[in-house]
Amino acid sequence: MTELRYRETARPPLAESLEVLVVDDHELNRRVMRLLLCEFGCRASFADCGDDGIDQAAAQAFDLIFMDLNMPGIDGDETTRSIRATGASRATFIVRWTTEASLRLDQALYDAQAPKPIQLPALAQIIEEAARRRSIGPRPSRTAAQNLSSI
């Protein structure tokens, strides 16, 4: 009963129409995010490597991208640089998603940072910011990004 109430109150407005890309080389992380994003009603796509993430982000304008920092081959930073340089998702709200939360956030690349494992309140806040940003236009204010980076 408590869980249902939490879901009803936690779902940010407009979350059901958000297009989300999760780029992570670990299948378990992608599965967990699939379940969590489904709870919020988001439409999610998944990439298991940086190259696939770049291809998907170039072909489709996503509202939100969760980027794993440490992946074999092209890492999260390089993948994000490529996405920011060209393609349909170059202005997308991108979240650095990592277990290394103590690393300083590169605000030229990322709009926010989220810890692994991500908790529902933090995910709700990120989804809410992505939905807000989509409704007002390109990149959020640095104040919003700085607030999210402390999650």
Notes on the structure:
By secondary structure, the chain is an alpha/beta fold. It has one domain (20-97, 107-149): Response regulator (Rossmann fold), CATH 3.40.50. 44% of the residues lie in helices and 17% in strands. It has six helices and five strands. It has helices at residues 2-10, 27-39, 50-59, 76-85, 120-136, 142-149; strands at 19-23, 43-47, 64-68, 93-98, 112-115. A five-stranded parallel β-sheet has the order 2-1-3-4-5, sandwiched between helices. Helix 3 (50-59) runs parallel beside helix 4 (76-85).
Which short descriptors sum up this protein?
single chain; 151 residues; alpha/beta; Rossmann fold; 5-stranded parallel β-sheet; 6 helices; 5 strands; globular; disordered N terminus
